[in-house]
Amino acid sequence: MIHSLNKDEIPELGFAEFIALTAMMMSLVALSVDTMLPALSEIGRDLGAFDNNRSQLIISLFFFGMAFGQLLYGPVSDHTGRKPAIYLGYGLFITGCLLSLFATTLPVMLVGRFLQGFGTAGPRIVSIAIVRDRYEGSAMARVMSFVMTVFIIIPIIAPALGQGMLLLAGWRAIFASFLIIAFLSLVWFILRQPETLSKEKRVPFSFKRIISTVMIIFGNRSAMGYTVTAGLVFGFFLGYLNSAQQIFQDEYGLGAKFPLYFAFLALSIGGASLFNARFVLHHTMQSLSKRALLSISALSSGFFLLALWGHGEPPLWTIMAYLFATFFGTGILFGNLNALAMESLGKIAGIGSGVVGSLSTFISLITGTFIGQSYNGTVLPLTAGFFMLSLASLAAMRWAEK
């Protein structure tokens, strides 16, 4: 049976099928986060959370697990090959889904979410390695641009899917859908994707190698500065993800309309990604990123004052306009900061990308969780967090460029 799955006996996927499979595997991250948002309060009530803010940990623990996973799957796949590393990730993800599906207490749910995050880092990180194995240069950029289109679409539709399942079958159906998607994509991967890393190119797994890479990044001003910047930027976005359901459904009373508003804001990030892909050919990543951060800082300072004047509850249309403009800048930053962090790490790009992703995720977890847990029934913690973290990001970027 194992013999039947050898690389030589599985023909290489066609371009369109390869794009579709890779996109489906990488979309597990976005689905696992955005589909959950409409259900957070109901899950918390059912599992005995005495404070609505505790339900936000269902999002935070997912990213906590993912931070660890990003650090390990790259080196594991370099040692075992791409397919065994992805099998490991799927196994952990499915285990986490089962724990969450049958959870009767919040701690069990959070353990399940940690395992889901740790597991889904496998398909996400190793899929990029598979793309790198098959393509390089402009061909790789073309493949990744098609794949990243999914990340524009998924956040737009995922909350609506979650809301629909919540209304029709309850929140446990959401985890059942994760299991179905994971199973289908895993079977597709097993049957159709050949191994892309030959045995002669594999390297021994070594914690020493991971630690040495971490130390190289800590000693590289540019890489470290942009990694911190990326972590702070994703920190205020994670603060939004943690708070969005409470702000829109509880504070503004949108109820089942919440996914529509979330989708509208997701369009801003998607539009920014397309804008950045075009304008980065004519402007440097540094200049685009700096302008985006300056704009976010200015918008956040002004909106924070408006929110104070409105006792923390400005009109809905104003916060929508503010977040739409802010997320446009955030979309530009998502497209550039990781590339800037990796620019000086060419000789250790494989493991370096995992370390950069892991470190930036840990930074975002600390800051984003703090913003979310500070939610007090108003938008003040969110807007203050956006303002302070955008200023801190500017300082980190300035330090990186010295």
Q: Main attributes?
A:
single chain; 402 residues; mainly alpha; Growth Hormone, Chain: A; 14 helices; disordered N terminus
Integer-rounded radius of gyration: 21 Å
Shape: globular
Indicate the proportion of strand residues: under 5%
CATH superfamily of the largest domain: MFS general substrate transporter like domains
Number of strands: 0
The run of helices and strands is HHHHHHHHHHHHHH
Number of helices: 14
Tell me the structural class: mainly alpha
**Class of the largest domain, according to the CATH hierarchy?**
Mainly Alpha
User: What kind of sheet is the major sheet?
Assistant: none
Describe the overall structure.
- The protein is 79% helix and 0% strand.
- With 402 residues, the chain is mostly helical.
- It has 2 domains: 12-194, Growth Hormone, Chain: A (Up-down Bundle); 206-402, MFS general substrate transporter like domains (Growth Hormone, Chain: A), CATH 1.20.1250.
- The protein is globular, with a radius of gyration of 21 Å.
- The model is unreliable at 1-8 (pLDDT under 50).
Question: What's this, in brief?
Answer:
The protein is an all-alpha fold and 402 residues long. 79% of the residues lie in helices and 0% in strands. Helix 4 packs antiparallel against helix 5 and helix 11 (285-309) runs antiparallel to helix 12.
